[in-house]
Amino acid sequence: MTAPKTLYDKIWDAHVAHESEDGTCLLYIDRHLVHEVTSPQAFEGLRMTGRSVRAPEKTIAVPDHNVPTTTDRASGVIENEESRIQVEALDKNAKEFGVHYYPVSDVRQGIVHIVGPEQGWTLPGMTVVCGDSHTATHGAFGALAHGIGTSEVEHVLATQTLIQKKSKNMKVEITGKLRPGVTAKDITLSVIGETGTGGGTGYVIEYCGEAIRDLSMEGRMTVCNMAIEGGARAGLIAPDEKTFEYCKGRPHAPKGAAWEQAVEYWKTLFTDEGAHFDKVVTIKGEDIAPVVTWGTSPEDVLPITATVPAPEDFKGGKVEAAKRALDYMGLSAGQKLTDIEIDTVFIGSCTNGRIEDLRAAAEILKGKKVKDGMRAMVVPGSGLVRAQAEEEGLADIFKEAGFEWRMAGCSMCLAMNPDQLSEGERCASTSNRNFEGRQGYKGRTHLVSPAMAAAAAITGRLTDVREMM
Amino acid sequence: MEKFEKFSGVAAPMPLVNIDTDMIIPKNFLKTIKRSGLGVHAFAEMRYNQDGSEVADFVLNQPAYRDAQILVAGDNFGCGSSREHAPWALADFGIKVVVSTSFADIFFNNCFKNGMLPIVLPQEQVDLLMKDAEKGSNARMDVDLESQTITTSEGEVISFEVDAFKKHCLLNGLDDIGLTLENASSIDAYEAKMSAQRPWV
After folding, report:
1. Minimum CA–CA partner of A443 in chain B
2. What digits encode the pLDDT tens for the residues B123-167?
3. Which residue in chain A has the smallest CA separation from B109?
């Protein structure tokens, strides 16, 4: 009998195309997702060396980071010249190299990590890469998925492989049930709060446990999406019936006999009893509260019922970092988190821009209004999410509450398009990073779940969503 | 890629932990379709005021460190985004080596693709180098990849680990893609096997 394997071991072993004596491997890549910001130099590199894209049928391109999200975008060109040039470069490269492409005008366009699963490109057991750190999202399907730099984008385009060494295995188990008002976002932020942003460095995380199993595919994508914020190369969740159900019938999922054959294989994708993990973190589901971030690192996580910490609550280099964060965020130690007033609410991103996220926010907003003077926007993760939300009546709820109802894109998650915070503006955001300047120069970000974002929009301050349920 | 050769250079101390990619190169500079010219924007929001003037006390604006080639940094350097613009900006500024107790995975790999050497050392040794770096431009360190050593301005020699394959590529300035394509037959064979075993992929 062979030694028991983790899910990561199995997917890794199934993709080694070549192994050198020192353990350096060529890992075969099944799906390569491409967007406009990290690919132009890679395509240019191919051109300069006379190389072609080895597997254009496995390469999927979509513009998302730079695109405007205002509803008039269909009628005009992108005003910002640099953004326009980048999107035009992707148009040109996609055509010239013959890869699958969803242009801005296509209803299927959206954030690359939402489009991939939606179109059935992402399937269990695959290797998926993209020049974007949030590629970890696709791990929700039991796919080994991670971000790469532009040089590696060029490498995958040219060879359909990556030069890799295997990471270590880490298990994150969330046991039992979640309490009401607690969501996938609270799970993933709480894990980072526990491990720190460097806690996963060198590891691939497998998330497991009852609370993970209970999540929908959307929720699982939210959890895996932020594996990178904990420093992990990738996050994984073993596929199950929910996964198969999600994939079935999607445009690029297998059909007929191929489907049966695929499911049979996918059912072998789980961690064997007794397989070795190098690190294990266990959190009780019932101990997780709705959380917010107070600082400028995703590890700066606290339950909404807590108060702002003091620098001396920390050790080592984190003392200085906390001091700097409090100054940047304009907060003082001891302040109740629920007393923090906000100016803006952003609902969207590859973390929380899926249909279930919009449903959760709309549930809280139904029949309520955004507080006077606040800016609130919803940016669906894809054109199809947007269409579905309109069909379900969610768009009306948002609009009646006073939210702007936008077109799909990355938008204010990283503010490369015109959706930005101004200096000192404070935002409750469903995105993934609260770094300095992330959402705009000197902008202040508090990361929250969609339900918590909706609650904050109503009260104008960080709010415990459980009080509204 | 240029070969990584041993050099002697000034090291700038950046003790802050979790220096993220958004600090190293803010998003407004990601709109370029080139790799070059980003050095002037490295650490832009820490380095410049909004009117474009320099923030006087930012380390790389101080006379002693303007030509730094080494950064000695706090834990978890380069966390966040996969943007290769981060190492492009550092390299274009003139940085060849970053020393820290740990690096984010994607940033770490991106460095090697751009002729840069990220060095992981235990806290004690990073502290020692940080102290040395704080001495300013008189404190030049020697970095020798071949022998895997850093020598402080006071002659103390510190050894570091580096992956053998990555070292080989850096020392010889090798192009990864060219190397991989030498194994094209393995990739062909893998694809043939998989199209039989997992045709839906």
Report:
1. B45
2. 999 999 999 999 998 779 999 999 999 999 999 999 999 999 999
3. A149
At A383, is the pLDDT very low, low, confident or very high (cuts 50, 70, 90)? very high
Letter for the amino acid at B38?
A: L
**In which band, very low, low, confident or very high, does the pLDDT at A22 lie, cut at 50, 70 and 90?**
confident
Query: In Å, how far is B113's CA from the nearest CA of chain A?
Result: 7
Largest Cα span, chain A:
66
Domains plus CATH for chain B? 6-172 (3.20.19.10)
Q: Kindly give the residue spans of alpha helices, DSSP state H, lying in chain B.
A: 21-24, 44-47, 85-93, 105-112, 123-133, 164-172, 176-181, 184-197
Which helix (H) or strand (E) element contains residue A291? strand A291-293
CB of A424 within 8 Å of a chain B CB? The answer is no
Contact B114 A416 (CB under 8 A): no
Which H or E run contains B157?
Answer: strand B157-159
Give the relative orientation of helices A40-49 and A150-159 as an angle to the nearest 10 degrees. 50
Place of tokens 């970890």: A136
pLDDT score for A77: 75
> For A46-77, how does the pLDDT look when each residue is reduced to its tens digit (9 = 90+)?
999 999 999 999 999 999 999 999 998 877 67
**pLDDT for the residue A1:** 62
Question: A182 and A289 in contact (C-beta within 8 Å)?
Answer: yes
Nearest CA in chain A to B192: A17
Least CB–CB distance from A26: residue in B28, B81, B187? B187
For all residues of chain B together, what is the average pLDDT? 96
Chain B window 106-165: which residues touch A at a Cβ cutoff of 8 Å? Answer: 106, 109-110, 113-114, 163-165
Please say whether the beta carbons of A90 and A63 come within 8 A: yes
With CB atoms and an 8 Å threshold, state whether A85 touches B176: no
The owner of tokens 């978890």 is: B76
User: Would you say the pTM of this structure is higher than 0.90?
Assistant: yes
**How far away is chain B from the Cα of A164, in angstroms, using its nearest Cα?**
10
Tokens 């431009």 -> residue: B137
What does the pLDDT average to over A200-224?
98
CB contact under 8 A, A198 and B181: no
Contact B27 A317 (CB under 8 A): no
Q: Which of A154, A132, A160, A159 is nearest to A145 (CA)?
A: A132
Q: How far is the alpha carbon of B64 from chain A, nearest alpha carbon, in Å?
A: 23
Q: For chain B, positions 162-181, list CB contacts with chain A under 8 A.
A: 163-165, 176-177, 179-181
pLDDT over 70 at A85, yes or no: yes
Task: Tell me what pLDDT residue B66 has.
Answer: 96
**Chain B neighbors of A30, CB-CB under 8 A:** 201
ipTM above 0.90, yes or no: yes
Residues in B closer than 8 angstroms to A120, CB to CB, are none
User: Read out DSSP for A186-255?
Assistant: HHHHHHHHHH-TTTTTTEEEEEESHHHHTS-HHHHHHHHHGGGGGT-SEEE----HHHHHHHTT-TTS--
Measure CB to CB from residue B79 to each of A38, A197, A317 and give the nearest one: A197
Contact criterion met (CB below 8 Å) for B97 and B112: no
* Residue (of A405, A354, A363, A415) closest to A381 by Cα position: A354
- pLDDT at site B161: 98
Largest CA distance in chain B: 64
Length of chain B equals 201
